[in-house]
Amino acid sequence: MVNALLGKKLGMTRVFTEDGRWVPVTVVQAGPCTVLQRKTSDTDGYEAVQMGFEEKKESRCTKPALGHFKKSGVTPRRLLREFRVDASSELKAGDEIKLDIFKPGDRVDISGTTKGKGFQGVIKRHKMSGGPAAHGSMFHRAPGSIGQSADPSKVYKGKRLPGHMGNVRRTSQNVEVVKVDMEKNLVLLRGAVPGANGGYVVLRQSMKGRK
Fold first, then answer.
1. Can you say how many angstroms the Cα of residue 175 is from the centroid of all Cα atoms in its chain?
2. Do 17 and 78 reside in the same domain of the chain?
3. 69 and 166: one domain?
């Protein structure tokens, strides 16, 4: 069985425990996901399943994509991802994977694309402190010295400088599952999840949280 699921981040809220403590949680709509293709070592050289999440209009699909969906016998999906499985897995095209693969208390790794911040300076991008705030300082938010003079007469690669910030793939590891709502396909995860509300995420069984 595959231990992963596709979903969409909906936002943050809080829930109360039985002893009265409140826990900050992120609400994620996870699944149901449909298997679109079963890849085997005989046909593709490895064992995996391709899953799709969230229905999509046929008019927004390319003809090759429509052919792929029709071959699988399912309606078009907006998000497609591939996950490795064991050779003994009996999953096939058309099967549905639901949220019951997770339960409260489980630990998951959740991946998403962070919010894009555009072009930012070193203070926002790298948390540098900047210069004095006094009026005569003339040095407030600039990066300052970035290298040597005559030797080596260059800026070393990897130097922290202004540039594009955000819009990168990040994974939050070992996140606790607080609650699972099978009727609404919602899972509540303790803490923050990468990305903006409405962004797609991938949930996997945590590697570090396994016992």
1. 12
2. no
3. no
CA distance 69 to 34: 11
Cut 0.90: pTM above it = no
Widest Cα–Cα separation across the chain: 72
One digit per residue, pLDDT tens: the chain, 211 residues?
788 899 999 999 999 988 888 999 999 999 788 898 888 888 889 989 999 998 889 899 999 999 999 888 888 999 999 988 888 888 888 888 888 888 888 899 999 999 999 999 999 999 999 899 999 999 999 998 888 888 888 899 999 999 999 999 999 999 999 999 998 999 999 988 999 999 999 999 888 765 5
The boundaries of the domain holding residue 19 are: 1-31+99-116+161-211
Same domain, 103 and 184: yes
Task: Determine the Cα–Cα distance for residues 70 and 76; give it in Å rounded to an integer.
Answer: 8
Element (H, E) at 90: none
Residue 127 domain-assigned (yes or no): no
Closest residue by Cα to residue 28 from 197, 174, 176: 197
